């Protein structure tokens, strides 16, 4: 039992109020924002884990927060999936921001089960760098399925959810509540949950002023449902 507890502590899976740790995790992806990286175990977005970004409404800068990861991954030839995005990714602006749009795939699903099956398969694919999904509602068992798929594929998994879910328990390794800053071009990411550390508030990030969405419903670039037997 002692050996097991020591292993959990070394991996920052047991919270200790008196011993906050910055455990280095292989493959963490820098967010591109030093002020945020400083508070994240491994110094960036955790790979092989689920990340929740909670907002009151889409379009407050959450995609601009992901822009450095989009640039880095697409230039490296990794695929980025947008699943059930509320708006069409605006390709010209993304291209101007040095994102390789040939590596972007937008998917529209027709049901929760279809959405989960799609996300799981995207996360398990070896060519995936990042999978982003906009969840309206999900059971705890659904969230757990996503977490297991993220671990299996060792890719980045971002769930965008409404901030009303902030008080719910979640197996996510990292949970951020995003709100606009007082000034244009600012985003405030409150860290609700992180491995091995306290919650963090009052962060302010200056995010790049690039438009990554068009103000209209997303079109069906790839549309389900598909057979669940694969």
The CATH architecture name reads 3-Layer(aba) Sandwich
**Distance between the terminal alpha carbons, to the nearest Å?**
39 Å
Q: Look up the CATH topology.
A: Rossmann fold
CATH homologous superfamily designation:
P-loop containing nucleotide triphosphate hydrolases
Which blocks of ≥5 consecutive residues have pLDDT under 50?
4-25, 211-227
Largest sheet: 8 strands, mixed
Structural class: alpha/beta
Strand order of the largest sheet: 3-2-4-5-1-6-7-8
Quaternary state reads single chain
- pLDDT averaged over residues: 81
> Proportion of β residues?
15-25%
Task: Count helical runs.
Answer: 7
The ordered string of helix (H) and strand (E) elements is: HHEHHEHEHEHEEEE
What's the total number of strands? 8
Helix content: 25-40%
| Top CATH class | Alpha Beta
Gyration radius, in Å:
17 Å
Shape: globular
Could you please describe the fold and organization of this structure?
Helix 6 (112-124) runs parallel beside helix 7 (140-153). It is built from seven helices and eight strands, in the order ααβααβαβαβαββββ. The chain has a single domain (33-206), classed as Rossmann fold (3-Layer(aba) Sandwich), CATH 3.40.50.300. Mean pLDDT is 81; it is low at 4-25 and 211-227. It has helices at residues 2-10, 34-37, 62-65, 67-75, 91-96, 112-124, 140-153; strands at 49-55, 79-83, 104-107, 128-134, 156-162, 174-180, 186-193, 205-206. An eight-stranded mixed β-sheet has the order 3-2-4-5-1-6-7-8, with helices on both faces. Helices cover 26% and strands 20% of the residues. A hairpin with a 5-residue loop joins strand 6 (174-180) and strand 7 (186-193). It is α/β, with parallel strands linked by helices. The N and C termini lie far apart (39 Å). The radius of gyration is 17 Å and the shape is globular.
């Amino acid at each position: 039992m002692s050996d097991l507890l020591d292993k959990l502590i070394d991996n920052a899976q047991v919270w200790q109020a008196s011993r906050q740790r910055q455990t280095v995790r292989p493959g963490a992806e820098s967010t591109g924002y030093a002020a945020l990286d400083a508070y994240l175990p491994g110094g960036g977005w955790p790979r092989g884990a689920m990340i929740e970004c909670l907002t009151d409404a889409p379009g407050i800068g959450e995609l601009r927060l992901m822009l450095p990861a989009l640039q880095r991954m697409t230039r490296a030839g990794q695929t980025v999936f947008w699943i059930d995005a509320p708006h069409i990714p605006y390709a010209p602006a993304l291209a101007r921001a040095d994102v390789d749009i040939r590596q972007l795939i937008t998917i529209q699903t027709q049901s929760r089960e279809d959405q989960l099956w799609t996300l799981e398969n995207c996360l398990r694919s070896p060519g995936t760098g990042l999978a982003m999904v906009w969840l309206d509602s999900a059971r705890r068992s659904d969230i757990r399925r996503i977490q297991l798929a993220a671990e299996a594929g060792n890719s980045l998994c971002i769930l965008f959810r409404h901030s009303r879910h902030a008080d719910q328990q979640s197996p996510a390794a990292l949970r951020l509540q995003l709100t606009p800053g007082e000034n244009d071009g600012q985003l405030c990411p409150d860290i609700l949950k992180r491995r091995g550390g306290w919650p963090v508030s009052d962060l302010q990030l200056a995010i790049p002023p690039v438009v990554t969405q068009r103000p209209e419903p997303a079109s069906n670039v790839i549309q389900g449902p598909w057979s669940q037997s694969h």
